[in-house]
Design a protein that fits this description.
Length: about 450
């Protein structure tokens, strides 16, 4: 682990601790883990074996502090530049919109003029037409081109509006899921709230977890929740009853995906586990290495999972995506391109999209040999923390508080939704609606 990655990890764990999302003991353990990894890189030995690490490297610490200050200033400058680029792009979009509006207006006026000219010309033609025989009239009509009015125009793309805001959680909203006529929301307040989609009222609050509820997965009858108490809970989505608790990870459960009767779970312990939902037993586990043997797993926390084309795709804080066989026995390939943590995944047709702390979205194909992205674009002025797809639209949520819509084929920016006052951490498209959950403790519904 280099100094940059160590600094990023320490900053993030500090933020989580200050926000009360992780316990002090977990925070100290994570700091120790990062320092050990850094000591291996710099000293060639773990911190526990390095002796008086602090005393021996005090001068280097001073230099590192100066370097950290410089890097922070560089990061601030890059953020300012990104914000300026975003403002310039928004201005260009406005100018393009105005230019298209002018062109459409000119085209409309031209068509009106042409219609008037055609009407004048048809006055004499109609008089002559009336003098033709029925066969000659039919022949004349068949030879006419189709009327422009007969063509079916594509409807204009509708920009969703916020139709409701749900505010019952007392901490960050981390995850959302829909099953039947119910919306489920998981939060840093340790609860799962159940909402009636007809009345938009909170009808139940589930309190089985003892720490932040961080991720969901659903099928027709089950809701699966993963939390920072290291546990996975299986719920009957119709009755909201917890029917099983799965224990196997040694750190926070941070990602879930269902495939048939199997469940995949990812964790801050860097592993991915495959579970049989019928028995509640672990079928397989993938890690980076075991007993000195490389197994193909991730080298940092697993942050996102998605089942795509009978393969499991994972995203990680090690900045990579990995593609696994469904039995987890083989890592088919590692997808590299992001320069910082991967936060989110979404799929559409033959594509997998990833959102990252490097502020970009990248598009990938997972069934070929290529391990590089097929497309990449700077999407937001801050971390891209959530992705979801609906039809031909890809939605992204960010720490810049915005939601953006993109064409899944051309990657063209379609529109931006504003409304949240903090990080948009989770997105869900269902029932012709878009649901967004934020660190402002609210859920918004867009239609």
């Amino acid at each position: 682990m280099d100094r940059d990655r160590a600094r990023q990890a320490l900053e993030t764990y500090k933020e989580f601790f200050q926000e009360g999302l992780i316990k002090e003991a977990d925070y100290e353990a994570k700091k120790r883990e990062v320092l050990n990894e850094l000591a291996k890189t710099i000293l060639g030995t773990p911190l526990e074996s390095a002796g008086s690490f602090h005393a021996q490297h005090q001068a280097e610490h001073v230099r590192d502090s100066a370097e950290i200050a410089r890097l922070k200033e560089e990061e601030r400058r890059k953020r300012d530049e990104a914000a300026a680029r975003e403002a310039a792009r928004a201005q260009k979009e406005r100018e393009d919109h105005e230019r298209r509006a002018r062109l459409l207006d000119e085209e409309r006026r031209l068509k009106e003029l042409q219609a008037k000219q055609a009407a004048s010309a048809n006055v004499g033609a109609r008089a002559n037409f009336a003098n033709l025989s029925l066969d000659e009239q039919l022949k004349a009509i068949m030879q006419q081109p189709d009327s422009p009015a007969a063509a079916v125009a594509s409807p204009p793309r509708k920009i969703p509006k916020c139709v409701a805001t749900l505010a019952q959680h007392t901490n960050y909203v981390f995850c959302l899921a829909v099953a039947g006529a119910r919306l489920f929301s998981g939060s840093g307040d340790t609860t799962i709230k159940v909402w009636d989609l007809q009345t938009l009222k909170c009808i139940e609050t589930l309190k089985e977890h003892t720490h932040s509820v961080y991720c969901f997965a659903t099928n027709e009858s089950l809701l699966i929740s993963g939390a920072w108490d290291n546990l996975i809970k299986v719920w009957d989505a119709r009755t909201s009853k917890c029917v099983r608790t799965l224990s196997g990870h040694s750190s926070y459960v941070s990602a879930l995906a269902i495939s048939g009767t199997n469940l995949y779970s990812g964790s801050w312990d860097k592993s991915i586990q495959k579970w049989d939902l019928g028995t509640g037993k672990v079928i397989a586990t993938i890690v980076q290495e075991s007993n000195g043997k490389y197994l193909g797993g991730h080298s940092n926390s697993v942050s996102a999972l998605s089942v795509h084309k009978n393969m499991l795709v994972s995203g990680s804080y090690d900045s990579t995506l990995k593609v696994f066989s469904p039995d987890l026995l083989e890592c088919k390939k590692t997808l590299q391109g992001h320069t910082n943590w991967v936060y989110s995944l979404a799929t559409s047709n033959n594509k997998v999209f990833s959102g990252s702390r490097d502020q970009t979205i990248k598009a990938w194909t997972v069934d070929g040999l290529d391990s590089k992205p097929t497309a990449s674009w700077e999407a937001h002025a801050d971390y891209v923390t959530s992705l979801t797809t609906a039809g031909n639209t890809l939605y992204s949520g960010s720490m810049d508080h915005s939601i953006k819509a993109w064409d899944v084929n051309t990657h063209e920016h379609l529109y931006t939704l504003q409304g949240h006052t903090n990080n948009v951490y989770t997105l869900l498209a269902a029932y012709n609606s878009l649901y967004s959950g934020s660190w402002d403790k609210t859920i918004k519904i867009w239609q």
